[in-house]
Sequence to fold (367 residues):
Amino acid sequence: MRLTLSMLKADIGAVGGHTAPSPEVLARVREVITEGQRAVFLDSLVFHCGDDIVVALTHTRDPGDPEVHALAWEAFQEGTRVAQAQGLYGAGQDLLKDAFSGNLVGLGPQVAELQFEERPNEPVVLLAADKTEPGAYNLPLYLAFADPMHSPGLLLSPGLQAGFRFRVMDVEATEAEHVIDLAAPERLYDLAILLRDPHRFVIESIWSRKYPDEQAVAVSTTRLRNIAGRYVGKDDPVAIVRVQKIFPATEELGPCFALAPFVAGDTRGSHHLPLMPVPANTPASSYFCMPMVMGLAVSIKNGRFTRPVDMFSDPVWEHVRRHVVEKAMEMRRQGFVEPAMLPYGELEYTGIRDRLERLLEEFTVRS
Ligand SMILES: O=C(COP(=O)(O)O)[C@@H](O)[C@H](O)[C@H](O)COP(=O)(O)O
Fold:
């Protein structure tokens, strides 16, 4: 069965700040999605990461299918109406355009879609992150798909030994989509040169080299500020990762997040803090909006999801989180000084830029 898995995500309002959607907003999104079942898709999961609502759908249409996207758009719009009625903060924040034009890409919501021939058992991990940007997945995915120190399957399993092909997107290119395909391990150093800059170069997809038609990973790559031309909240990317057999195993992918790399985002989208792996449906952190990532491991059969297993909820992750919190607090001790605050070009609010321009005019040439 040729299946498409679509992950569609939007921040449409939250309770008491940029925290979490209300139960009523979530219920309305679920209701609209459920009404669309059978006509448009096979199965769905609706959950949240921080203040972002994620809709995951399985269907037999192609990625970018207008009806699938229209259903998600309608669900987010209906949810926004509830958020507005409840006075939630940032109601409809990620719906940047008024009219739906056949595809959610470019309208504000994040979209990751992956098409595949369903295996007899199809294990998949659904990742969602809040208060950060699409490049936040660069390092964990590189470790899982290219680094045998983290992913022993690259050495041990014949299905993985040929390595993987990484498609990297230059998200600063606005006129057209600029991508490059790099095969690991041969082009590992070239890959590293790009991935070291997660603001600009983002892993968009990863493919098996032994089975070139088999896509392992799809990451949403939309940068909201490229659409809106100004800061309207962080991008908060989603990603789909197929696991096991010819791909890294779930337990190889997991530890790649334990490193908790410093990523851009958190308060006012203008700082670096470590990416904290959290259980599903965790509200955004009141500690400086620490960037967070959640993962649901699911199996799919005939397009139906099993009940998900929460990837970052077992006891090991409590230990990891303690370490991540220490890392975050240490960084916060240096307040506004880089790299705690982002470099000038990446600041999402204009206050510093405006003030610096005035200050530069006050400089005089020393005689
Ligand atoms: O990062 C944040 C929100 O991100 P989000 O929109 O949830 O992706 C917050 O730190 C806000 O920038 C901060 O709370 C200020 O928000 P405003 O008062 O400007 O809306």
